[in-house]
Each structure stands twice: as structure tokens, then as C-alpha cells.
Amino acid sequence: MTSLSPEEWMIISLSLRISIVAVLAVLPAAFALAWILARWQFPGKLLLDAAVHLPLVVPPVVTGWALLLLFAKNGPIGSWLFDWFGISLLFRWTGAALAAAIMALPLMVRALRLSIEAIDRRLEQAALTLGASPARTFLTISLPLAFPGLVAGMILGFARCMGEFGATISFVSNIPGETQTIPIAIYAAMQSPGSEMLVARLALISILLSLGALIAAEFLNRKITGRKLDDGTRH
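The chain above was modelled as a monomer; its predicted structure follows.
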């Protein structure tokens, strides 16, 4: 297999940039939602849980269509962003990052929620009893114990972003150098005769990146499960 061309490197670097930005941007919301779903009891919790996981079950093009309606220049959010800040997400890599973030959110919330639920709450209660404030207890007890799930969620989210296609192409189209990620480039190349090698190279890179992310996430998930079992054995 020949070496990658400058255009292929551009596609890969753009995909990495979009995926990293998407994961970092959605991480605070994912953690907050995971914490709420793991710790709070309130009317409508089941509905919130279903809404968070909705992107997993609806066709991705439906998510992209919804984003197009909301963030178009005449949409309720898009018009506000453009009128007040001069920002438009349509046909830009930032729009691709938004679409990827929405699709990655359910996986990140799921991994974080499992990690938060695995925390021994007696440790938090002990810290509060000894005089630690809720904020200090969260920063010194809860967050470190949830950290493996945080990392696992970011890895799973990154893998999902790298593989995102339907919502992205529906929302920001296929613009080389701006929104053409690896999956979109593979799809475009499959429509062009004589592009078999390009498809093979990009597909192999996509598989390797996704496989590495899944292995890392599974390793961290086993560490979380093992820690929970160890804590149960000790107590």
C-alpha cells in the first residue's frame, strides 16, 4: 500500500480535529447528565434518559436534519448565533464537530454513569462527616473515583466521532478541507471509479483508530468493574 497523499493526511487531520473538539466540547454536558441520571430521582427522569439516548436509535440523517432546522440561518438557534455573534455552523467544520458531539453524547453518558454508580457513597459520606465541603468531597473523592469512566467515555466518544457519517453529511454536507471526514471521504471515493486504493487506505486507518479506542475503553471498563468487585469483597 502506497504512502498517504497530502489530501489524505488533510482528511485524517480534519477528522482528528473534529473528533477531539467534539469530545471536549460535549464532555461537561455528558458528565452533568450522567451525574443527574446516576444520583438524582425526579419526575421525568425516564424521559430524560430516553432523550439522551435518542441519537443511538434514530437514523443519523434524522439527527442531521434536526440540526439543520435548528442551526440554519433562519432557524431558532442559527439565526440567534448569526445575528448576535456572526457565527454560522452550516458547511463548516465546527458544524461537523457539533453533529459528532450529539452522536457521541449517549455513549459518553453511558460510560460515565456506570462509573459514577460504581462509586462507594460511604466514602463521600465519611468525607462530609469529617468536615469536607460538598465541593471538596466531589473534587477529592467523587471525581477521582469516576475518572476511569471519564476517560472511557471520552475514548468511546472519540471513536463514535471518528465514525460519524449520516448526521454530518446531512447537516454540513461534503466539503473537502472543511467537512470531509474519513467516513465521508470513503463514501465519496466509492462513487468514483479507480479509487479503490484510497477507499482501502482510509478504511484501514478508520478501523485501526476505532479498534484501538474500543480496546482502550474495554480495558478501562474492566478496571472499573474489577474495582467495584474488590470493594464489594472487602466490605
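Residues 99 and 186 are 18 Å apart (CA to CA).
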